[in-house]
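Aim 2 progress update. The chain analyzed this quarter is reproduced below.
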Amino acid sequence: MFMPNSASIFNPKDNSLEERIVAFKSVLYANNNIELSLKYNNDKLWSDRLGTSEEVKLAQKINEQSLKQAFKSLNYADLQEAKSLGLLSQEEAKQIKVLKAKSDLNQLSHIDKGKTHGRHEFKKN
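Predicted structure tokens:
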């Protein structure tokens, strides 16, 4: 399946904190649904309702890109303000922080895979 690099479901109507939070919540909702779909994809009772594994994995990739965009749009102070304004629940804020930490670790692991960590590779002649 083809997926453009810009595919995303994070689409706030404007740059206000409220709209960014609304858009972020839609990405969180999709993320939760995708996790459940992956969990039950091999269950015969659910698999015909969830889509093929390929479709769920495509949705997961699009959602990962959406999360990256969403993370770029909010900083820690924004999350604190959103909580104080009642735009985010404590649980939603916690979920965002956990997903952000996972995303950061994932990016670090991709960076590390491209490094040799000071080791030199020698070619045989």
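The chain has five helices and no strands. Residues 17-40 form the longest helix (24 residues). These observations will guide the mutagenesis experiments scheduled for the next reporting period.
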